[in-house]
């Protein structure tokens, strides 16, 4: 655990302990570039598309216009390129948001595996924090 010592307004000194979970989260957020996709959402995006129109699906997970690309990969994940696709007809599609699909850009249900891994990871962290 990190210890932060500071002086309060009234002149007293305070010692605060920073939980490990926060430390791990903060250190993982410091990286500016990645070569692995980031989970944009835990569930797929339901999107109405127009047949014959070309779409660019975000493969890195950094786009602010999910599930579509806004060019964020150029600075945050230069090794990951977006996926171009053109639907044959007007339809409603489920586009992958976890970025782990084997059938990009379409959802193949892999997000259930991602959800389960996140749950297991959270439970392990809780038990580690209680044992220390």
TrEMBL record:
The keyword Protein biosynthesis does not apply. SMART domains: ZnF_CDGSH. Keywords: 2Fe-2S, Iron, Iron-sulfur, Metal-binding. InterPro entries: CISD, FeS-contain_CDGSH-typ, MitoNEET_CISD. Residues 42-79, 80-117 form the Iron-binding zinc finger CDGSH type domain. Gene3D superfamilies: CDGSH iron-sulfur domain, mitoNEET-type. One of its GO terms (cellular component) is mitochondrion. One of its GO terms (molecular function) is metal ion binding. Its cofactor is [2Fe-2S] cluster. PANTHER family: CDGSH IRON SULFUR DOMAIN PROTEIN HOMOLOG, CDGSH IRON-SULFUR DOMAIN-CONTAINING PROTEIN 3, MITOCHONDRIAL. This is Iron-binding zinc finger CDGSH type domain-containing protein.
